[in-house]
Amino acid sequence: MISVICLFAGAAVGFFTASMCMAARRGDRMRPDGADPGDAYAGHGNIR
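The chain above was modelled as a monomer; its predicted structure follows.
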């Protein structure tokens, strides 16, 4: 039972992190930092 709870908790955290990354990537389109909206690294400012 505990393993099932951990599985669902991990999936929830994963989906939450993915949605946060997608929201940050969409926000980069409106930020004038010279990032290409089609760039795979948009949203990760520390990886250029």
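The helical segments are 2-28.
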